[in-house]
Amino acid sequence: MAQLVRPQGITLDRDEALRYVGYSGQAISDELLERFETLAQACERDLHPTGIWETFPAHDAALTGILKGEAIANHLAGAREVALMACTLGAESERELRKHMALSSVDGVLYGACASALVEAVANAVEAQVVAAAAARGLRTNFRYSPGYGDLPLDVQPALLGALGATARTGIACTADNFLLPTKSVTAIIGLFDADTPVPGGRSACATCQLRTTCELRRKGTPCHGHATR
Q1: What is the pLDDT of residue 1?
Q2: CA proximity to 182, closest of 98, 126, 100, 67
């Protein structure tokens, strides 16, 4: 049964958002930084993200048409189960992005970068739920792998959304070219492995894990990689 997630209190990574607009340490005026922060806070305050995920046996027929290519085969080598996930900032993000772009091209670019960073934070929160649920069953996970990475084609998007029932439950759809709508949406695939199975691309330390700020296991002192939290 697919799990619907409505993350609350998600904050976006300001440094990540600035990198999306090409910032690499150059001087920025106080006025521009203030505009950027106002838009970042608007994203966090006004948007209502939704996520969905479900696990399937590694050879489930529901995965047919989704696991294409050598890269995802390597990512899931030895997996007992496969988790599919999708998340979105919703239709409101599209309306807000169009509004800010119409009022000011600068604000539109900054708002888009903030929204991109926010949906990544939401994806981290959904992935953290998958990791925690797997750990509760004695399973380990690797990192999420999205369509468009390596040789995993974008044309798997419709099948992935269909397996989750994501269009009906979250509003995420695909264009004819297999891009997601709303644009601030993410889909991904995660492998679940038995404790004694080598994990391709598995986590080895909390310090290098992108989920460290949202991970319930880390807060409890029982990280998924089996080593002391640091």
Answers
A1: 84
A2: 98
**Residues whose CB falls within 8 Å of the CB of residue 225, separated by 6 or more in sequence, listed in order:** 140, 202, 203, 204, 205, 206
The percent of residues in the chain predicted with pLDDT above 70, rounded, is 87
Q: 88 with 47: CB under 8 angstroms?
A: no
Q: What is the pLDDT of residue 215?
A: 54
Element (H, E) at 217: helix 216-220
**Per-residue DSSP letters for 84-104?**
EEEEE--HHHHHHHHHHHHH-
- Consecutive H or E run containing 15: helix 14-20
Task: Say which residues have a Cβ less than 8 Å from residue 200's Cβ, sequence separation at least 6.
Answer: 74, 75, 76, 77, 78, 142, 191
Closest CA to 187 of 94, 78, 52, 71: 52
Give me the residue label for tokens 């939704």.
50
